[in-house]
Amino acid sequence: MRGERGFTLIELAVVLVIAGLMAAIALPLIGSRVQGATLDSAVGELRATLREARATAIAQDRSVAFRGDPAGGYWLDGEHRVVPKGLRIATAAPIAFFAAGWSSGGRVIVQSGDGQRRVLSVDAVTGRASLVR
């Protein structure tokens, strides 16, 4: 009937194909942003942990050690802590924080499963951690 309004089956199929293509393009981009946000969040928490280690060393007048665990998580003062799944924490050598507020210095690498990474540098003089890249 010529007077009725509506869409043809071909028009509906074309719209569904276009929507599918848009979703196929957008989903990987959204997924990488979520992984990047998880990585950035973990780096922020790790910086807070390193500040905590320095503060503990000063307050308790003793050394506190931090080291990454490539199998997952990290060790802080003899206690193993976990990180979000898919992230790895690595250090070349343990980083010690001393009662005077300084540290042995070093770098902490946080890497995600898809290869993204962030590097924290712990200053030997101040014991403070800063994001390098």
Strand content: 15-25%
Question: Termini distance?
Answer: 66 Å
How many extended strands? Answer: 8
Assign an overall shape.
rod-shaped
Helix run count? 1
Largest sheet: 4 strands, antiparallel
Structural class: alpha+beta
The SSE string, one letter per element, is: HEEEEEEEE
Mean pLDDT across the residues is 86
Uncertain residue ranges = none
| Rg measurement, Å | 24 Å
Largest sheet, spatial ordering of strands: 3-2-1-5
**Roughly how much helix do the residues carry, as a percent range?**
25-40%
Structural overview:
By secondary structure, the chain is of the alpha+beta class. Helix content is about 40%, strand content about 25%. The protein is built from one helix and eight strands; from the N terminus they run H-E-E-E-E-E-E-E-E. The protein has one helix at about 10-60; strands at about 65-70, 75, 80, 90, 95, 105-110, 115-120, 130. It has a four-stranded antiparallel beta sheet with strand order 3-2-1-5. The longest helix is centred in the N-terminal third of the chain and has 51 residues, at about 10-60. The protein is rod-shaped and about 90 Å long. The mean pLDDT is about 85.
Keywords:
alpha+beta, 133 residues, single chain, rod-shaped, 1 helix, four-stranded antiparallel β-sheet
List the helices and strands and how they pair.
Elements: H1 9-59, E1 64-68, E2 74-76, E3 79-81, E4 88-91, E5 95-97, E6 106-111, E7 117-122, E8 129-131
Antiparallel strand pairs: 1-2, 1-5, 2-3, 4-6, 6-7, 7-8
Entry summary:
The protein is an alpha+beta fold and 133 residues long. It is built from 1 helix and 8 strands; from the N terminus they run H-E-E-E-E-E-E-E-E.
